[in-house]
């Protein structure tokens, strides 16, 4: 296949002419042209191999042969909408239901994470008869108009906050108001949600839902303190709303210990709605909403059909089933635990060596779980000022060293690791060795008063 049929410069020129600059490139100053990928590796037009540390969509590995074959074989037989009886959709819903707590037993299939969250919003509003939403600060829940409205990460740069949206602080025990030395940050942060709800109610507003990523990712690879979600759910339910867990970035075994990241919050916690995307189809556009019977029944009572042309097609469901089969057969959930723990240990050693590494793990909490890991880069231990420019410099140097990483968090200073789940112990060693060498070189340069070529 002639994926590299024109020079990189020509591709860039054509892209700049034809594709909106709102659709951004990684490394805009020197974009990478990727022509193929396999497992945890991506290859450019010159054949150079990059270790992919960020692609949580290629969940079981880029172009996994089992997933590719499943799509191809089903494509040869039938691909149509879900208005016909077909075994794939029911087999798939059954398999997903086996991974979830019993009450989450009704499924809708869609094409993207945004579609899933938009449907979750509709479900919540129909079920509760309320309109308003509580979200966490810095959250991102998708690109549809409805979701930009509930994504502080986006709406802060656009029209601002709508009157039906209420923002609660991120339960960030490294940078937030309640930190690692607080006796009960879960309760303290949940009380913030209670306060936000009460203040909305005082203005006559009624809460339909609380939306949160089970582990806020754009917010900076945050791991909410255990027990926080149950407490929040109590406050939200009391206000007549439902709890929506966005698992679009973090579900499907990424956290290792559990299949779903919300399960880190304790076995008694069950969201009312769970949304899935990205990793669910390993790159094929698949998404899903799981909810309870009462929520689904309220939506059905409107008498309006939910129709989605491509959602739940035999091909999408074959792909989804193949992803679950690979996860199971290759034991990738257990693999995420062992490789993730090893990587975190290596990163912890970097924290001891390099003062710029602020938070990987502190005695009472961790900045990572399974293959979802954040490294918070700071200018200074006392103030924890985000080392934004340094983080951008590091990412660009890592790219020169064939490692693809990026940053997250409001200060864009959190290095995020969320690689394909086949990321290996050897990959962890290689990446941290490169990180170490670049940090050492940076420190050398700062000591000898050389200017670093920072990019923002
Ligand atoms: C947490 C979260 N929710 C929803 C979405 C939207 O998913 P999609 O881009 O598939 O529409 C994203 C995408 O980045 C996301 O990170």
Automatic annotation (TrEMBL):
One Pfam assignment: Aminotran_3
Cofactor: pyridoxal 5'-phosphate
InterPro entries from the UniProt entry: Aminotrans_3, Aminotrans_3_PPA_site, PyrdxlP-dep_Trfase, PyrdxlP-dep_Trfase_major, PyrdxlP-dep_Trfase_small
Keywords per UniProt: Lyase, Pyridoxal phosphate
Superkingdom of the organism of origin: Eukaryota
Gene Ontology MF annotations: identical protein binding; lyase activity; pyridoxal phosphate binding; transaminase activity
Family under the similarity heading: Belongs to the class-III pyridoxal-phosphate-dependent aminotransferase family.
The protein, known as: 5-phosphohydroxy-L-lysine phospho-lyase
Source species: Macaca mulatta (Rhesus macaque)
